[in-house]
Automatic annotation (TrEMBL):
Keyword Transmembrane helix among record annotations: yes
Species assigned in the record: Brachybacterium kimchii
Protein name as it appears in the record: Integral membrane protein
Keyword annotations from UniProtKB, A to Z: Membrane, Transmembrane, Transmembrane helix
Compositional bias per record (Basic and acidic residues), positions renumbered to this chain: 16-27
Region (Disordered) location: 1-32
Transmembrane domains' residue ranges: 40-61, 73-93, 100-126, 138-156
Chain intervals with Polar residues compositional bias: 1-10
Record flagged with keyword Transmembrane helix: yes
């Protein structure tokens, strides 16, 4: 067994060697890089989860009690709630490698941009506000910022994973 504290076992015995930069799960000896990545992913999931609960509660109440007053805005509130629930579940189950989460976040961003633009520039189209009205101003603009942050996070991790795979291929062939 090696006396090197950064190694979890001898490389010749098949144990992972954290110093090998070609390994996808390589970390520095303190593990801070992995903890930071996991922490941000957890924060993203928590914020999506809170927004999912808030939007689902709002949409459920509106649909149950006031649907006939303004069916389109209330249906849009339900759509926003569903996107938040789906993204939350995808991030929990598949993490940063979820292609579906990337697509749903893209659809979410288009939805908030369209609804936000319509409610800002043609306010007469909507009788009442939705989660996405005025770009999510009723929710502190979190509905606008969240899909942008999520898309950037997912794309950065996809590129890092692809780069790690190509680096590992170069190391093996060298």
């Amino acid at each position: 067994m090696s006396s090197d504290p950064t190694s979890t076992g001898p490389a010749s015995a098949g144990g992972p060697d954290r110093r090998d930069p070609s390994r996808r799960d390589a970390v520095d000896p303190t593990g801070s890089v992995r903890r930071r990545e996991r922490g941000f992913a957890t924060l993203l999931i928590v914020v999506y989860g809170i927004l999912a609960l808030a939007a689902t509660g709002r949409a459920t109440y509106e649909l149950a009690t006031k649907f006939t007053e303004a069916p389109l805005p209330y249906a849009l509130s339900l759509l926003s709630a569903l996107t938040y629930v789906v993204v939350t579940v995808l991030l929990v189950r598949r993490g940063a490698r979820s292609r579906a989460a990337l697509w749903v976040c893209g659809i979410e961003l288009v939805g908030i941009l369209v609804v936000g633009s319509l409610t800002t520039f043609a306010p007469g189209l909507f009788e009442v506000s939705t989660v996405w009205s005025h770009f999510g101003s009723g929710y502190g603009f979190v509905p606008l910022l969240l899909p942008i942050v999520a898309i950037v996070y997912l794309l950065v991790h996809r590129r890092a994973a692809a780069r790690g795979a190509s680096d590992a291929g170069r190391t093996v062939s060298a």
